[in-house]
Description:
By secondary structure, the protein is α/β, with parallel strands linked by helices. The protein has helices at 7-16, 32-44, 72-80, 93-96, 116-119, 123-138, 150-162, 192-197, 199-213, 219-231, and strands at residues 2-4, 21-26, 47-52, 86-89, 142-146, 168-172, 236-244, 258-267, 270-279.
Amino acid sequence: xxxxxxxxxxxxxxxxxxxxxxxxxxxxxxxxxxxxxxxxxxxxxxxxxxxxxxxxxxxxxxxxxxxxxxxxxxxxxxxxxxxxxxxxxxxxxxxxxxxxxxxxxxxxxxxxxxxxxxxxxxxxxxxxxxxxxxxxxxxxxxxxxxxxxxxxxxxxxxxxxxxxxxxxxxxxxxxxxxxxxxxxxxxxxxxxxxxxxxxxxxxxxxxxxxxxxxxxxxxxxxxxxxxxxxxxxxxxxxxxxxxxxxxxxxxxxxxxxxxxxxxxxxxxxxxxxxxxxxxx
Length: 280
């Protein structure tokens, strides 16, 4: 395993790499969800690049950029154990955004203005700017993203399509703890009591899936059922619950043939997201 910290060095590495490259962009503090992406990338490519970069552009002024968990040594140890041709790209903010940097990449339209986009203004502009730059540096054959961040995945696919980028975006199913909690680097913020309360997200999704399997197709009723379940957890505060078209992410007002059910919920101070897709 090799660690590269400069943009020029990662470009030179890619110039010398003749085979296919799988790319896994992360903000570090790796867990089994990230490693699932790395393993899939390793199985489908000759080499793998994992970026570890906490991107300041995608955090709002009152968000957790400063306290976002970081442990590069642990991340490197986890990746070294994967027995793959892994290169870690770990630039500083100053390396990625040097003095005078003034360019942004933004996907316009409702896909970035609803759900996470509405709750976190500027977030997706920061995501698409950094991902575009990382794609330019790494020039991957395939890039791997978790489906837990469903809207982010949709936005990146839109950017890649609109700009005719020469790579394939691969979505990978959400990896969960044995009790159902979606793996997230932010789970480390949770106290033991909050960790137990956080299970309300996966329970709400399971409830929606159960109703769907029993024939419920009304989006409003599915949303209300999830909200009612979450309301029973005293530590949970709903930011949003959505039952939306899986392609456009627009809210479904009536009956649904398929739906992306997603939510953002505060457990104490920690904001968690989760989703599932319901199909006939």
